[in-house]
Amino acid sequence: MLHLVNPTEMSNKVKSLLAIMMFAAASATTAFAHHELSVPRSVQPQVPAAIQKVSTGTGLIQQIDKERGAVTIKYDSLQGLNMPGMTLSFLVKDKAMLSSLQPLQKVNFELTYDGSKYLITKITRASF
Q: Same domain, yes or no, for 57 and 31?
């Protein structure tokens, strides 16, 4: 004997099944989102900080711009930064570093490169 299902009854069953499936999907999404948010920061992957390169050098001051906080130095090669000897202007970490310096003075300096800019972090008169 063939059992026929009333179309209204079938529609209600389909609606109930769809409602259950939607509820299950929403619950799973909420649980997943909660899991993602509850992972401790120490476990989450970290973006590596920029690697800072440092080199020391000796050079002769050509010019000082105290307002800008920059010094132009004719220097020998800087091995730590793969830079040949030349004359360049660099910003200094603190403008006060320039207060006791003069043009044509021999200096020792530390130059850092953070991946985007060069900065003199230490500069002192060189001893002869």
A: no
Q: Do 38 and 89 fall into the same domain?
A: no
User: For the chain, what is the domain count?
Assistant: 2
Residue 63, φ and ψ in degrees, nearest 5: -155, 150
pLDDT digits (tens, 9 = 90+) for 56-103: 999 999 999 999 999 999 999 999 899 999 999 999 999 999 999 999
The whole-angstrom separation of Cα 57 and Cα 81 is 10
Residues paired with 119 in a beta bridge? 91, 112
Which phi and psi (to 5°) does residue 98 adopt? Answer: -90, -10
Amino acid at 31: A
Residues spanned by the domain of 33: 1-46
